[in-house]
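Morning!

This is the sequence you dropped in the shared folder:
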Amino acid sequence: MRSPWRMLTSRGRAFLVLGLVTAAAGVLLGYEDITRIGVLLTALPVLALLLMPRRSPRIQVRREADPARLVPDERGAVETHFTNVGRRRTPVYLAEEHLDYHLGDRPRFVLPRLDPGEQRRLRYTVRSRHRGAYTLGPVVLRQRDPFGLTFLTLQLSSRSEVLVLPRTHHLGEGRVRGTSRGSEGEMPQMVALHGEDDVSIRNYRDGDELRRVHWPATAHRGELMVRQEDRPARRRAVLLLDSRDRAHPGGGVRASYEWGVSAIASVARHLQLQGFVIHLLTDSTVREGSADHPVELDQALTILARATPEANTRLARLAAVAAPFAAGGVLVVAAVVAHDEEDLRALASIRQPGSRALAFVLDPSRFGGTPRSDGRATRPSGAAGALAQAGWRTVECGPHTEIPQAWAALGESAQVGRSA
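The structure's back. Tokens below.
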């Protein structure tokens, strides 16, 4: 609980000091009327303090965001429910919802008196230009007496979250060319008869259902044949995001990092539509041990929405986690900054014969300056060269490089290190 002096406004403190001085002067000078005025001035802020409620109101706060997840520049509506769960009627408060500054101005409103069990609703809009996880709350309640002599601030600790997903781009309709091996070794060869896709035929075994008998194949071979409706093995892709704090120039919202996140999110969407199984490698997935598990698109976008540059991390660590995947012939796609040649060579080495590896090479000098260099900064052409020597296909990217164009350059150009 705040001290009484801190609960007084500037006006209240002036009344109290002026009242005490006036009362003291009236006593010393022998003027009773002046003394009465001083006592009255002193009594007003004291009485306001005594009438100020000392107990925090028991108000429950619940928020509903529509939609629950936004995309950059999309407006979302947040409906906040205030419920008096106490046994006493609440006073009138001036309320303010605390928001991250990226979401817009903080809404301010008058919260009227609430009887026990009564509920009020507040609706406001939020919008962010940047992806991320943003906190809603807490709600701060302020109360003044009618004369403006006292000021009380209370906080309702309830918090919620709004998730703004990364911006994704359409990467075209072209299919990604497969590798010589599948995700788990060789892709199984399926026999399709009479237009029945993904259906193989095998000999009848005891216990097989008669409805699965394939009569044309039975007549052709002279023995019972049944359908085996197995799907071909799905191709896998490993998406790697360079989150080295020292590699991305600038502070706050870093253009190079946001470009990389958007590129990886766009590739994830594109590959999943083509039937790929996706593994997402970031510092958070490696730290949590979830990099080994495939992710759906919604989960990948959620992880990327929360991703931030991290200090004391090395690209070699992500490369070590990605190496076992690359040995199986998967498609590797990386968004990497041209910084620290040793880390880049560690990443380049994960590509194995029979697999494809593609890289968006971000030029830090084009994203607002050089990174916070420790003396090991690498030129984009050198980074592309180090990756190209290991069989990677690369494209150099800057802040004005369109992600669909960069992806097209990776898929169509046979020349490594091509600038978009």
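Headline: The CA atoms of residues 236 and 330 lie 5 Å apart.

More detail when I'm at my desk.
O.
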